User: Fold this.
Amino acid sequence: MIAFHERDLRRSVAQLLVVRASGHAFDSQRQFPKWELSNYELQQLLEEDVGGVILYGGTTIELQKRIEKIRSWTKQPIFLCADVEEGLGQRFQGGTWLVPPLAVGQIYKNQPAKAISLAESYGNCIGVQARECGLNWVLAPVCDVNSNPKNPVINLRAWGEDPLTVAVLICAFNKGLSKQGVLTCAKHFPGHGDTSVDSHLELPIIHHDLNRLKELELLPFKEVISSGVDTVMTAHVLFPNIDSNAPATLSAEILTKLLRQEIGFDGLLVTDALVMDAIRNTYGDDEAVVMAFAAGADLLMMPANPKKAIDAICTALLSGRIPMQRLEEALQRRKNALAKVYVSDSTNFETEEKLDHYLIERKEDKCLAEELLLSSTTIRHQVIPGNIKMDINLVRIDCLFPCQFLNNYSPALCMPEEAGYKTTVCHQMGVSPWQNDAENPLALERFGEGSFLLQLFIRGNPFRGSFFNQEPWLATILQLQRLNRLSGLILYGTPYFWNDINQLLDNSIPFAYSPGQMNDAQKHVLISFLQKHQDREMKPKQFSEFTD
Amino acid sequence: MIAFHERDLRRSVAQLLVVRASGHAFDSQRQFPKWELSNYELQQLLEEDVGGVILYGGTTIELQKRIEKIRSWTKQPIFLCADVEEGLGQRFQGGTWLVPPLAVGQIYKNQPAKAISLAESYGNCIGVQARECGLNWVLAPVCDVNSNPKNPVINLRAWGEDPLTVAVLICAFNKGLSKQGVLTCAKHFPGHGDTSVDSHLELPIIHHDLNRLKELELLPFKEVISSGVDTVMTAHVLFPNIDSNAPATLSAEILTKLLRQEIGFDGLLVTDALVMDAIRNTYGDDEAVVMAFAAGADLLMMPANPKKAIDAICTALLSGRIPMQRLEEALQRRKNALAKVYVSDSTNFETEEKLDHYLIERKEDKCLAEELLLSSTTIRHQVIPGNIKMDINLVRIDCLFPCQFLNNYSPALCMPEEAGYKTTVCHQMGVSPWQNDAENPLALERFGEGSFLLQLFIRGNPFRGSFFNQEPWLATILQLQRLNRLSGLILYGTPYFWNDINQLLDNSIPFAYSPGQMNDAQKHVLISFLQKHQDREMKPKQFSEFTD
Assistant:
């Protein structure tokens, strides 16, 4: 009898796990095979009642088929979630890719009503497209206040730099998203905005006490909880003045006392990814899972080893280290959350009939994407002067494999080439463009003649740590200015680096900034930059090819 | 009445066109928007009875959906074809990607029976997977004899370097392929093997006369035609000693007199892509289409402007320049060919029931891919000696966007990195690795300390022309050898460059050659190269992730 009970217990505990898989169909297509289960492993875990899958990568068409397949591998309702913060197209090709939320926060400064309306449409756009692909849980909004410009991991993902902006915008976003019948998620509790290290690599520490948190970080969470967010995700951040022993994800003080008891959140509480090094390095895989569950988390996201995680929690429950009541309440909350979206499955949403399932992106989604782009882009001077034939289009990116925003038809590459430029792409794996000279860091002889159009793609990227800080782009700008070889500069990404550039860039140099990095952002800026120059033989027909 | 007739004529002529589209679902995903119709254009043309679509790119899952959609846009049976010469995975992710045909030709030298059996399996593998995705016409086998090692465009795509090898292997291939209920295509008539310029860029000229052609080039075509190939594709090659006025694609002498009358081929004859510069630059878009049709081609592949192509042919027919009989016979051959595969649609093939439609790749396909890889790879010395910590993994590729065989989990990048190497990827768009010194072309200070593992991905690539010839890799090998900084060399691609390297490489230097460039080829070589070195902390578990 005990063996039988244990099997039941394992199946119940398994329901609390959310495991990671690729949105692609085949194992060989996985972008991150270290983290993404093979189909064999995934099917096996689902047969053992693992309760959710988080998906990354692939196209919307593939995702629909993929989710059909995953559903066929399980007997129970499960969570099908994705980390979609900037439009479905951020993770799945064919969906709409919107400029990052911080751009909406900037709009709020001058046009609050417009920003609120955009935030609601932003949520709506994600919700419709996610549901259409078969997802039932979107891991957004980010509720962190990006009070620290050096934040390498939140940065543009935040909705603002002050608690009121964030609170207002995430509530609007959450309203738009949850109307579409998918679950929403407020993250990363109790706040990840004031960190300067990447929790994917090491554990960030925030020394604020509870009073400060209540004044700032907690405000957006309280607002969105009271306005009805479905789930909350924990932060892998240590708050030694609140709990010196454990980071938020593993802290009963923060999860149970603060979030449950003081704030009164009674929905589903999920950890951030437990494979992140901030947690693994300090606590070990199995202990982290047990601590998180004991501390009050209901769902365990991406445990390093799902089967061992189930074992460890079962052991803790059977030994009495964790009361069975924890399991019961977590399962009940899981059931309640799923009931919402599994009811929704059979509901006909207003937009349903109008959609061609083949085309995930609606007309209004395209309009929203364009409006956000236009509202958030700054362009100074429309035309690049100078000699064209010998000019250099220097494109700086973080990462080559994969690079989501560059492909062979990207405007950042094609449009300057059509205008006579020669493109060089600098990336972490390329031949170095640098020489050992602090004043003149760019090794010019590696590029040939002509002046430079610099296109810098720079934003806080999880897992990249401070890699960007090692590249002397500011000194390069000064170097090229001194030599009169800087014909234009475009920054796609973080507004904080834009501020740095602004302080040293000559007024005469054409400059543009866009928070978005996608093809549409490139096209929008480069049309202004290149189109009107009379010496240039532009071929507008070529550009129209970038439009759908 | 004439207006009505003209509309009917337009619809009939439209059936002779094959237009190009992306295998991806959405316009924004097109890899080559200049050549790939938008969905709007494609739907419109199909409604006007355009008779076929050639597809490039996407995944097998997407392709299935894509073809469903395309079929819904037309009222008639149409050709759904792809340029799949090296396994479906060459064009569509998720399919099997096999080493190029020339590798089978090499096996034939010592093991003819094995090579013939492999060639039949090769065809079978493509046929099953193509049909499973909804394709009904595979544009293979290449029947050209690669008698010219400098051939930039056929090269590894050929089945051999002599007519008998090619004839035997393509017949076996054609047998395997056509058994699966898809149409096959012998190309490029009357032979493209002895060219040294890329017909995608300029018109190749071959000065052989008819006697030489009969002795060599025509032999494989005759064999495969008599053994039952469904269609033949023309070559964009000028043979001035046969027809001094027009290249094969536009030559009645070659298409009608030689192929139809002398050789007696009565199947469907299709042009090579009419957008290729070899044709466009000399004859103009509309005239080329009319000339090809007049000369005897039944189907017109990828005309630059489909609507204008229809107009031009209608005009030629109505004016009497081309007799109506040409249209009737072309339509009849089209109908006959389609009848074969549209009957097949309802036939249950032997393998049908066994296939999980989600998984295109069967177990036997994987075995075939592995056997071909093992049979075609040469590895000299299993282990790279030397200091690891500071070593450089220098990977040379042609093209970055897109690069089909490199991604963030590619063994060529990951395996040396796991073993302590630092990777630099050299590509056409990168910072130059070269300095102006013929004896010492590699600018070593751009790479840092340590010795080099050179991984060169080099093969004849359409559209690349002679780009590779400008890179001094042979001098670099000598340079690194002199400095004792060459720790190993791997060539993925053309056997001809392998011969060049062999003549100057020290015997002591570990060396490997694989005709395949795909991840599996990289993994196979690098396991031998790296695994057995004792100083290296290898993590075999990591490698197993590359296996499905």
